[in-house]
Amino acid sequence: MHPTPATSPQQPEHRPAAAPATSATSGTEPTANVVEVEPTATAQAVVPAAVQPAAGELARLAAQEAGTQLTPAPTRLGDVVPAPEQVRPEPAADFTLPADTTIRVSPDPTARAVAERLADLLRPATGYPLPVVEADHPEPAGGLALVLAEQPALGLEGYQLDVTPTGVRISAATAAGLHHGTQTLRQLLPAAIESTTPVRTTWTLPGGSITDRPRFPYRGAMLDVARHFFGVDEVLRVIDHLARYKLNHLHLHLTDDQGWRIAVESRPRLTTIGGSTAVGDAPGGWYTPADYQRIVAYAADRHLTVVPEIDLPGHTNAALTAYPELAPDGTTPAPYTGTDVGFSYVDPANARTYEFVTDVLEEVAARTPGPFLHIGGDEAFKVKGTAYTGFVERVQHIVAGLGKTVVGWHQLAPAAHNEGRVLQWWGTDGADPATADAVRRGARLILSPGNHAYLDMKYAPDTPIGHDWAGLIDVRQAYDWDPATQVADVPAAAVLGVEAPLWTESVTSLAEVEFMLLPRLPAIAELGWSPRATHDWAAFRARLAGQGPRWASAGIAFHRSPEIPWPGSPTDPPAASVPTPVPRPRDPHTGRG
Ligand code: TNX
After folding, report:
1. pTM
2. 499 pairs with which residues across the strands?
3. Which residue's CA is the nearest one to ligand 1's atom 8?
């Protein structure tokens, strides 16, 4: 590792000058980890076109190991995660991309942007030029067509994909639908399509039609950038992973006791002081307005909405180190780099607290194009009863005044209803009368049950990072639940969707993020997208297995769960005994290695 100045072009986000950047600088290292995959028996790797950015030690190991041991099978039309609503294979209708493939697209800027993104995805591995051409009535004509057209049955995010001997056509009523269709197209190509360098192979798609649309409108993942800070480039890579599985929201947990990560121009010390720390001895850091804008824009290009969280009234030690006048006793607390929760809070009885909250939320709202502002509300153990509900009601009111929809952890439930408010359920026993009551009063729910969707839980007792307070979560545990019936006395109609949170007390690098996300994130994504009728563990694990070679091709670290039949020759050792590239163990309390 080498220290990276905060002004390095690859690190536009701010880091405190004194803190040597370690884990988060991994994206800047030159590397020799170009993935050499054997995509099919006939494929040959071509000389790498460019040096690729490193994804860290873990990713290197994962790519090397999985790339050599996972032999992808030919892709069938139904081999898509999340499972599409309808799949109609036509075995005689396979189509092979010619080297002169053109992407024809309806003359609409948002559709064109989807076509450009598709070309960006397909160019590295194919090495084809893939020009994008607008046409009033795009036809595949021996290539690819993206057609924007009225199709009420497909809704806001659905698409239709047809592979015929004359090409591939994706049609949708919205650019979001076209985008999801391109993610399906990507999965229908051989796994080597994920290679970052050209691969010589036959780019054949299985023939037939897919008609698809999501079960729930909200499908998200959360990244905690407060306990450990992740730079812009790392967040962008996480966005790529979310987009693959048709998620449409990225929730950023931007503030906590250990660090404040978003610049607020009217309260500069929040970041210069509050942003300088993280768990253990890890470097701090924060996003400038331009950094945050880059994240929001990159997400929007992939049809993801950013949901910023400013956690209040608890989880505020970092804010209090910067603005101690908000602390209940007015004294400056020591910076906190441990992993306890529930001790800090802004004073709900102090008028300046609400000025502070207004200043912060106003700026964050102004920079956030999406409709949601997340105000946390969890584990404020020292703000009880009406002090807590009164605080929440005032903050909900501030959010509404900014034209945003309030989201908060389900501890918000006892507070009065506020038009449109959304509670994020993270319980583990599926019953909570206060939440059910809030739903009766009009709240909608995002489901993140701790014992299924918490991606900071360990996979198994020997998983070297992560927690186990909500249990161990391997892939089946992540997959085997139903958002429509998860919380007692909450009707399916009140469920907005699902979200997989990744808390990062023990997660210190991009490779560790990927290791915890994959392969569980696709399980949660499938619960949010696919019709319940497709829910079937045996079928899911077989489809998920096909994603392994794709991650390997792309150099993405993942956990080789023994529950999944990762492809490989019969002589390979069983997955459980394959040495899995795992993060080194850490002290669960300090987060230190
Ligand atoms: C609980 S879940 C928290 C977080 C921790 C997490 C660790 C929730 C709303 N609060 O502060 O990081 O557990 O699993």
Report:
1. 0.88
2. 220
3. 378
